[in-house]
Amino acid sequence: MAYSYCHGGDIETFVNEFGVQPIDLSANINPFGVPEAVRAAMHRAVDECAHYPDPFCRAARQAVAEAEGITADMVYCGNGAADVLDRLAAVLRPKRVLLTAPTFAEYERTLTGAEIDFHMLRESEDFAVTERLLSDISSKYDAVYLCNPNNPTGLLTPKGLVKKGMERCAEVGARLLVDECFHDFLCEPERSVLTDQLADNPHLILLRSFTKMYAMPGIRLGYCLSSDR
Question: Are 21 and 15 spatial neighbours (Cβ–Cβ below 8 Å)?
């Protein structure tokens, strides 16, 4: 049977085809591996596997909220960021969406039934997001997705420009979803993330994940932040 999978990290296909374990460059995972504190927490959690997990993720949401300096009702947890993207698409049901390109393929996959337009990043601009994006954001869009830092280019869009995009989305009545799953790899992530903008901008949604920095894609844990309860 032939499978189609756009996310990356499908080790089994390579093993079946070539008979060896590959060096996987299709998923961006911390090369230092799982931190010992995380490994220890996984071991402690084994005894709890006899029970269903808390369907409302109370402890996880509270811990994230305390770390982010927000309230727990602004946190939604899912089985990885990809699962959260699926659930957001199901809830928001946007009719028309603006995506940058190239960017993370999962956005397009989750937006079943939506009309998708692409803001093409240019080689002449080193594939960076520039103020050209602002002129493409219009009232015909229900949502705009922006990956920051971007996957696969690795480029960071300055916070000032992202805020302009956020303000532009507010003007035209569009949601802005900013995927900050790679923010942990920045030298000073607190200078770039938009957590401080959540309270005053209910149309803003921030996507986060434990997968990349903590090298734990096999333990699904992602979340989003929004003041739109």
Answer: yes
